[in-house]
Amino acid sequence: METLRYNYAQRLLHWLIALLVLGLLAVGSLLGTLGFDGLKDLVGLEMTNQLYGYHKTFGILLLALMLLRLGLKRLFRSPVYQPPLTGFERAASLTVHTLFYVALILMPVLGWLGTATGGFPVQFFDLTLPGLVPENKELSKTLFQLHGIVGWVILGLILIHVSAAIYHWRIKHDGVMKRMSLF
């Protein structure tokens, strides 16, 4: 029997990841704009270290949740669209969702590697994770630049995704929003 909705675990994971990504992008843009010293001057050393620690922790959590989401996607079929999407809508949806998965896995990996090559601990709550790669300050700088670029890509994908959701909800009235809504 075909279903018109994702299962509850997938829907809950979607919204948890959405909130996590928005928070990470907000904090990440602050860290990237002000840098360590600028943020330290603004909020002090302790708060700066906490923000960096939280950003690392929640970035690793994002990676874990995205891998879980990818696993669930492989286990459970996607619900059917009713009414069916046009060819363009299907292609656009597949492209945006694929880019989301790639970017939301790549971004925390780049952050992890950038942190490790920068000689800093990779934190996940109170655990220090293995760095995986040797220290290399130049490589770290490049990895963090890529980390920031992927952040902008994710922001663009969010704008496209939300615009498409609003289009389906307010203009097409086709039930696409129900597929991922929690209730």
List keywords for this structure.
single chain; 183 residues; mainly alpha; Fumarate Reductase Cytochrome B subunit; two-stranded antiparallel sheet; 5 helices; elongated; transmembrane
How would you sum up this structure, described in words?
With 183 residues, the protein is mostly helical. It is 76% helix and 3% strand. The protein is built from five helices and two strands, in the order H-H-H-E-E-H-H. A two-stranded antiparallel sheet has the order 1-2. Helix 1 (8-43) runs antiparallel to helix 2 (45-75) and helix 3 (87-117) runs antiparallel to helix 4 (137-172). The longest helix has 36 residues, at 8-43. The model has no long low-confidence stretch (mean pLDDT 96). The chain crosses the membrane at residues 12-31, 51-70, 91-113, 149-169.
Indicate the topology.
Blueprint: H1 8-43, H2 45-75, H3 87-117, E1 122-124, E2 127-129, H4 137-172, H5 176-180
Antiparallel strand pairs: 1-2
Cofactor: heme b
Membrane topology: Multi-pass membrane protein
Keywords: Cell membrane, Electron transport, Heme, Iron, Membrane, Metal-binding, Transmembrane, Transmembrane helix, Transport
